Structure formats: C-alpha cells, structure tokens
Amino acid sequence: MHTSVGFFAFAGLLTAFAGPVSAQDLAWKNSYLEARDHGQKVKKPLAVFVGAGAAGFQQIVQDGAFSSDIRKILAAEYTLVYLDADRADHKRLIGELGISSRKGLVLSDRAGDTQAFFHDGTLSEAELTSQLRHYADPALIVRSTSTTSSGRYSFYPPNGSYSSGTSASPSRSTRNC
C-alpha cells in the first residue's frame, strides 16, 4: 500500500517538473462538433484556431509560435479545435465563423453556445495571452462577441455621386458571429 502511494506521489512530482507543454502536445480536435460536446462536458470554453498546414494553429501569433504561457493556458483552460484552411471539409465552417484571412481565432463561452471573442488575422503574443486569460475566467458571463479587429468604414455620398454641400455619413453594419 505504501509503495503504491509513494509511486503515485513520485509520478505526480515528475509530471510537475516535466517541462513546458509543446504546441504539438496539446490535445487538438479536428471536429468542431466533437470539441463542442467535449467542452460542454468538461465545462471549458472552445478555442477555435484557424491556420493552414500541420502547425497552422500557431499562425495566429505574429511571431509564429506559442509561448510557454500560452501553451499552459490552452492546456489547462480550453477545449482546442484546429481548422485547417487547406482542408476542403473545414473551409465552410471557417467561412461561417467569419475568418477570411486563413488565420484567426474564435473563443466561446463555457457552454459552447456563444461566441465570446473573434479575431481574423494575427495577434501579438501579449494580446493572445491576455484574451486567453480573460475568457478562461469561470466567473465571466458572455453576452456579446468581443473583437480586436477593426471595422472598415467607407464614406460615400448617397447614390454614389458627389456634389458640394452633400454630407456623407458612415453606413452601419452588423455582423452575425
């Protein structure tokens, strides 16, 4: 009995000092539906990464690689999904998520029902770390989608023509996320 307790204590100690989790060692899912079901069971939000190729999930970071802090947060707090923009079976979902640059990130709430955060393109390591920490908070209640992406506003006069004295106001658009 004492031997088995000692063994498990030693094994736990080895695990604690085994070093940082590599990006490839993270538990990635390729099926959004499977990941959503799993996330609901374990009460973890989804982190849906979009990229291209085998290690495309790291393309969200401007420097091209996850830091040890990012890997630790992802391993402990999220159910991870990787959608490869090169795969035909992922392209439709990537489009539905609103990712047009072939790299991006979507974070859900813990129920997997609400999109909490959206970003199309790359993020700095500091910004990604900040967003991951924020949306991992179990006390956070998500009511709308946040983004760091800036909207594009074009100022065109009414009917596409210009005449002096005509005031153009920006058009407003909404985005379903």
Structure in a nutshell:
The protein is built from five helices and six strands. The protein has helices spanning 2-16, 32-42, 68-77, 88-97, 125-136; strands at residues 28-29, 46-51, 79-84, 104-108, 115-120, 146-147. The chain has a six-stranded mixed β-sheet, with helices on both faces.
What does this structure look like?
Strand 4 (104-108) and strand 5 form a beta hairpin. Helix 3 (68-77) packs parallel to helix 5. The chain is globular and about 35 Å long. The chain has a six-stranded mixed beta sheet, sandwiched between helices. It starts with a helix and ends in a 30-residue tail after the last strand. By secondary structure, it is an alpha/beta fold. It has one domain (21-149): Glutaredoxin (3-Layer(aba) Sandwich). It has helices spanning 2-16, 32-42, 68-77, 88-97, 125-136, and strands spanning 28-29, 46-51, 79-84, 104-108, 115-120, 146-147. Mean pLDDT is 78; it is low at 1-19, 151-157 and 159-177. The protein is built from five helices and six strands.
Main attributes of the structure:
15% strand, 177 residues, disordered C terminus, 6 strands, single chain, disordered N terminus, Glutaredoxin, 6-stranded mixed sheet
